[in-house]
Amino acid sequence: MSEPVKTWSEDGVGVIELARPDKFNCLSRAVHEAIDAARRGFEADPAVRAILLRAQGKHFCTGADLAEVKGIRTDAGKLATFIDTGNATLAGLEASPLPVVCAVQGLCLAGGLELMLAADVCIAADVARFGDQHAQFGLVPGWGGSQRLTRLVGLRRAMDLLLTARWIEADEALSIGLVNRVVPLASLEEEAMTYARTLATRSRPALAEMKRLARQGLDCPLEGGIRMERDAVIVHLQGDDVSEGLAAFEGRRTPRFTQH
């Protein structure tokens, strides 16, 4: 049996690739566990400074593995484990000190949309389509879709997508802030890897701290978030990467960050 997720690293980028194209890369418990294990492995590798999440085949991911869900949906314990496993995987991506870039081609629906929402940046192919299909089949999101989507695009836009279950094209996804960039399908892989490689040249502690501040600040009043940022920068400025960055600025050269 082939592995449901492929992983490797290159140029400071840890790649997590969904590898079930024959099943539209649907998300089983095993897939979530493999994603989570890969993320933890990359975090432990000082040579990795960014994660790229992508998928094989025509489509990114069309959602949960419904065959697995159907077999456990009347067993509350097994269903809770299935849902909790997915939520832990997505929370791990959000909380990771490494920036997570997601590359999306084709369909990105339901659980696939929820997975994409846990990334920090999304680059989409011009043929990508996004949607939350749960309402169409009498279902509700289970991996944070009703929460992350609202926080990202706002209540009105999120309600439109959740209640109608409609699919949107890449250009509309860009216009509402669901994705960061739209590129031709033929160049998606290259563009996403180039973006991730750029992040991999940055200071790992600096990116981790900015990611933490931005995400935790969402749950704070502005004044509290600013205080959190103030306290963080006082500690951060003592680091070796800051010394290197300032020396590079004064010397008009590219920084050579080594801290991890």
UniProtKB/TrEMBL annotation:
GO molecular function, one term: catalytic activity
Domain of life: Bacteria
Signal peptide per UniProt: none
Alphabetical GO biological process terms: fatty acid beta-oxidation
Gene3D superfamilies noted in UniProt: 2-enoyl-CoA Hydratase, Chain A, domain 1
InterPro entries found in the cross-reference section: ClpP/crotonase-like_dom_sf (IPR029045), Enoyl-CoA_hydra/iso (IPR001753)
CDD domains: crotonase-like
Cross-referenced PANTHER family: ENOYL-COA HYDRATASE, MITOCHONDRIAL, ENOYL-COA HYDRATASE-RELATED
The name this protein goes by in its record: Enoyl-CoA hydratase/isomerase family protein
Organism: Futiania mangrovi
